[in-house]
Amino acid sequence: xxxxxxxxxVKRTVTAGPxxxxxxxxxxxxxxxxxxxxxxxxxxxxxxxxxxLPPTVPAGESTSAAAAETGLHRFNIARQPxxxxxxxxxxxxxxxxxxxxxxxxGLTSPGVTGQFTIEEALxxxxxxxxxxxxxxxxxxxxxxxxALPVSSGSNSGDTITLGKVTVSDTxxxxxxxxxxxxxxxxxxxxxxxxxxxxxETPVSIQMLPQQVLRDQQAIGLENxxxxxxxxxxxxxxxxxxxxxxLRGFPTLEHFRNGVRLPEHAIDLANVERVEVxxxxxxxxxxxxxPGGMISVVTKRPLxxxxxxxxxxxxxxxxxRTTVDATGxxxxxxxxxxxxxxxxxxxxxxxxxxxRDRIFIAPSLSWRPTEDTELNLSFEYRSENVPxxxxxxxxxxRVIDVPISRNLNQPMRQDHIESKLVDFNWSxxxxxxxxxxxxxxxxxxxxxxxxLPTAEFQTRFSPEDPFLRRGxxxxxxxxxxxxxxxxxxxxxxxxxxxxxxxxGGDYYDKETNSKGFAAFAGTDEQRERFFTFVNVFDRSxxxxxxxxxxxxxxxxxxxxxxxxxxxxxxxLYFQDQITLWEKLHILGGGRHDWTRVKNAFSNQPIQDSDIxxxxxxxxxxxxxxxxxxxxxxSIYGNFVESFxxxxxxxxxxxxxxxxxxxxxxxxxxxxxxxxxxxxxxxYYHLTKENILTRKAVDVPILSTxxxxxxxxxxxxxxGEVYDGLSLIATYAYTDARITENNDGNEGNRLPNVPExxxxxxxxxxxxxxxxxxxxLGTGVYLASARQxxxxxxxxxxxxxxxxxxxxxxxxIGATRLTTQFNVNNILDKRYFFNGDAQLFGxxxxxxxxxxxxxxxxLVRLEY
Length: 862
What we know:
The protein is mostly beta strands.
């Protein structure tokens, strides 16, 4: 446990005047105290004010008649949170306040309506708050807690004043505050499943808080993960789920509050922040891809009311409405709710690619005692979206046609419906022990109605420029259940501090599919349900396919059946040891017992068709952090893990899991009390049992493939000056195939640029005339990448330039934000991904990035 140090509560100022309007921004909102080390410039200003202000008088009394301005003002301030009522009073009265955020946290003002002097109105605003005031200058009012008499047991007749300034060495904001402007976060749970400062964690972890998501108008993960080094966007199954590459290796699964969600598309409407943990994570999370994991932290119910409605609109008929409402359901605040909703209706720069989505996420939180908390949340997503195959390649390059061209046959959209329930509870025993338990269940149903270009076609040429399209009508369902139990505790032995974790989890996922597919049909059916499209002019070789006949066959004579079930149990332990306040040692391990069942057939699946593979594996992890100063950490780690392998052998059996080993060393820094953080890492990662062909031109799989990824990553994020925030990243990645049967040893892994970098910066004006105006810009670049394992198709490098502007101001107690973003300002043509096929075909699915696009936004918050 980190040693407690004095805490400083720094005063914040709300200003108003002819050319200024008070904003309920981070500096004027209730939140945890800023720290002295992290807010040196704010402390210096406060100290200067203390020197020049007149001596304090008893709370509620003014220093002079002039200071208490006797003129009448008309006020119309409704009942609302005290901090926003003070902002409205400052605006309507032309005054400014100085107060600590903790003073007004959770307090409500009855408001004031009518004609009053400033002092009369202030008394009504503060009624019942327990706060007093003094006029520091004619237009500056300092709030204080009212003086209280010393207890009767004291021999003194004097009075004492509460709420004096104390000192702290870490900037600690409430990460759940809707108005939090931070670009840096100091603590994360993903890396250790404990609330541990990142500076004491021997792994590379980066986070994207809510303000970044807002500034970049993020709708999905692909809109923000470009701000993390070593992360590249992947194909995502043609629009159906989020997929990314981390440190050279793809991952199809993501995590929600630390719980695995397989092949899932994340709507950011109820996401508070995104956490990315680099390197293997199997010690805590079981079977997982070794490049790293992506976890979203969802918005929690708050005891302080907050309401927001936002409308986005943009190029290609994009419209998105989001609603966020939270607050207490009981007078004592024990029971709180949150409700998030988003509706998306959007076109695309790709022909016939339109989507609409409704997303609803209600949640409840109950705290019957200070030590006990229960949480229940639900998510519902219904989406219609077509399959997109991208563009094929010819002679080592993507074909030279407009990036809008969609070679699939337009037809009805595919449909996805997802329902998720999450219940968890926790209880703290004393100050040092805590138990957590949770259950998550998800049901997803897909309806695929597609006529896409064939992914496995190997060749076409200028003389024969036709790609095959094959009908695919399939119904697919997936059920997922997870149960977990964690016990965390802190204690000391012989002066050595321990933070321990003991836990276990169970995960089960079952998928079933049934439908009609042309590739699985008879010769006569293939003739009926295959067609060919000319990639250069979209002409076809035969009339459109009879879709009604295909739907009839799906119902009456399906020919493609699939079943797969994955289940595993895991037990894990971890000990975080602290020596001499500077040395932090992490050690732990996890043992997994897994079972995989699967079967694929042209006939309904029988029990005798199901193949079963059982596996056990132990995943250790050790790490060390040396922190010579509070702002510098030097770390290293060693991790072994095993992950998913979704293929099957020539006998239709599941294949052995992949294994991975990672070595990593790095340096972390934390400046300005945690407002600016950085991480520099070197890693060496190997992955074995990768799917590969048993021989060239033979589409039979085995697990003898091996690859290695090594590189350097740099991430910097935070505030470097009042109002100036930035994110800067760089990644050098050398990812290559080291063993397989294709003759591809030494080739670069697909879709991994050797060099990638990004920069995003914004400045929010602090001056009175421009206060509330924010301007930002960003540049994202990647070097050339290979689109397939044979390195026969190259995707050129690219540079993309984005920018944005926003203006925030108050209308009474309501905060209004208008914003405008421009992406790909120079309208550069680039491809972010080539869907490299396992069988070594020339990449026929290469996906273009968006051209010049515009997005506007209007948001009301109360």
